[in-house]
Amino acid sequence: MSIISVSNVTHQYAVEGREKTLALSDVNLEIGKNEFVTLLGPSGCGKTTLMRAIGGLVTPTEGTITVNGKPVRGPNQDCAIVFQSFALMPWASVLQNVTFGLEMRGVGKAEREEKARAAIAQVGLKGFENKLPKELSGGMQQRVGLARALVVSTPILLMDEPFGALDQQTRRYMQEELLRIWQQDQRTVVFVTHDMEEAILLADKVVLMSARPGRIEEVIDVTFERPRDPEAVERLPEFVELKEHLWRRLRQAHELNAA
Amino acid sequence: MAGSISPAAGAEPAISPRPIAILDLRRDLTAPQALFVRILAFVVFALAWQWAAEAADSILIPTFTETMAAIYETAFVTGEIWPALWVSNLPLIIGFAISVLISVPLGLAMARWKAIDATMSPVIALALALPIAPLIPVVLVALGMGMTPKVVIIVLFSWVFIATNVRAGARRVDKSLVEMAQSYGASERQVWFRILIPGAIPAVFAGLRIGLGRAFAGMVIVELIMLPVGIGALLLDYRGDFKAGLLYATTILVMVEAVILALVMQALERRLIQWK
Fold it and tell me: Which residue of A has its CA nearest to B191?
């Protein structure tokens, strides 16, 4: 039974003065419970739009999306989002930022703080509860964003290129952390990225998308065993093959577009 | 210097001349150096004033020492300046408070709702461009000679600056923060109180600081042009009696008040915005 069901979703939007852009064209996707799915593709392929539509931040012009059995009509309690720009309140401490989601759900103060402290420890930021975002590095800020999303215990986690703003080493470190944390509760994740290696490394399923119009090219199962060690996995011949396959598909799609 | 390439014989070095012994003017001053420079500047100013005033030898131009003595006299001996300051500042306090109560919500509303922004846009543009002073006779004729016209003028002087700064500040709040809040289930009210208003506070304070300065200017103009009752009355008296020292003294003390208000606002701002 799918926990996320995307049916015939098309999304068009108009920017002032320009022609309408077809961000998504007839997209269909089923995501099962506890699956880690990555949406992979170049700029303009609609991957972020699709993720935002699942999260209720965007309403597609056509089609329906069902999450946890209910049609999506706006931001819902089943999804928690991790943003590319971190979206931390700069005037609030780490603890206050992490408790924000719980606060919006009406959880009492003592309980929120207790849960938040646990989440903060889980992402490796114990001791930083009273720091302000400006006192933290990019990687640490994103971990706060992750803790905030984890602590509301939603069945689904949506991540919008969460490591895009980080340098390569930090990104690798965060990927390892994410794998480790996910291993503990294995909730459903939809992870948007343009980084091919990241997409394969993290996922059970890679949804390859291409642009103009935004559409799904292919859905590929990734069967490497978990827990995954990035260094080891990336050297496997199957990994390299998969990467090359994805590249070929993308280049094909690109050439077809250009034709 | 070891390792440097010597210039060809007779060529001028390309580097600037040696720094002055006490102060290297090209670099930032340390705190003690800055204090020294400020005190030095003040002393030079005072001496120049004293010298120029004595040379002019006019009843209308008090010397530095005469002015200082007059400041002491009006502040601590006769105490004349205090009731005058109070009378003049009362409309400032009331007017500024009203201005803030109108302009801050207005600025926030303009930032949040495009319809309000579009409606107010021409009003704002006009208010920014128009000098207020020509409106004073109009206000006097319409509202008479009491507290009300004074308060109205002060509001007119300051409201638009507060509103525009608040609006700019609220607009500058990261849109992704609003989205984040909505995604975690925040209601419209919660978006206001947890994201927009805290995010706009630095700009609100900048607006308040500028607005206070403008309101103060309005107060001075009210006193001088409209209805001299407090400071304005004192200034008129001193002018009439040729008491130049007291005249200068009073003017200086008014300026000191303006500076103190500005410094207080700045200190408040700094305390509230440690997160920036």
Answer: A104
- The amino acid at residue B246 is L
Two tokens at B71?
């400041």
Contact B180 A81 (CB under 8 A): yes
Give the C-alpha distances (Å, rounded to integers) separating A7 from A22, A54, A63, A190, A258. Answer: 16, 11, 6, 16, 28
- Tally of CB atoms within 10 A around B13: 8
**Cβ B195 vs Cβ B188: under 8 Å:** no
Return the residue of B nearest to A158 by Cα: B183
* Opening angle at CA A207, ends A201 and A212, nearest 5: 130
Given a contact cutoff of 8 angstroms between Cβ atoms, the answer to whether B244 and B63 are in contact is: no
Q: Kindly report the pTM of this predicted structure.
A: 0.77
Question: What gap in Å lies between CA A31 and CA A146, rounded to an integer?
Answer: 21
Beta bridge pairs of residue A157: A80, A189
- Give the C-alpha separation, B244 to B235, whole Å: 10
Among chain B residues, CA nearest to A151: B184
Provide the β-strand partners of residue A37.
A190, A205
| Tokens found for residue B92 | 């400032």
The C-alpha R_g of chain B, in whole angstroms, comes to 26
CB contact under 8 A, A90 and B276: yes
Measure the CA–CA gap between A113 and A98, rounded to whole angstroms. Answer: 9
A34-82: per-residue pLDDT in tens? Answer: 999 999 998 888 999 999 999 999 999 999 999 998 999 999 899 999 9
Residues contacting residue B89 through CB under 8 Å, at least 6 positions apart: B219, B230, B257
Q: Can you spell out the DSSP letters for A55-90? A: TTSS--SEEEEEETTEE--SS-TTEEEE-TT----T
The CA distance from A233 to the nearest CA of chain B, in Å, is 34
Q: How far does CA B85 lie from the centroid of its chain?
A: 17
Tokens of B255: 């300026």
pLDDT digit string (tens) for A197-255? 999 999 999 999 988 888 998 999 999 988 899 889 999 999 999 999 999 988 888 77
User: How many Å lie between the alpha carbon of B269 and the closest alpha carbon of chain A?
Assistant: 14
Q: At A217, list the tokens.
A: 């090219």
The neighbour count for residue B135, using CB atoms within 10 Å, is: 15
- The backbone region for B104, taken as left when phi is positive above 0, alpha when psi lies in -120 to 50, beta otherwise, is alpha
DSSP state letters, A177-218: HHHHHHHHH--EEEEEES-HHHHHHH-SEEEEEETTTTEEEE
Type of residue numbered A248: R
B positions 156-175 inside 8 Å of A (CB) = 174
Tell which residue, A146, A150, A161, A152, has the closest CA to residue A185: A150
* 8 Å CB contact between B88 and B229: yes
Supply B142's token pair: 């319409």
ipTM of the complex: 0.89
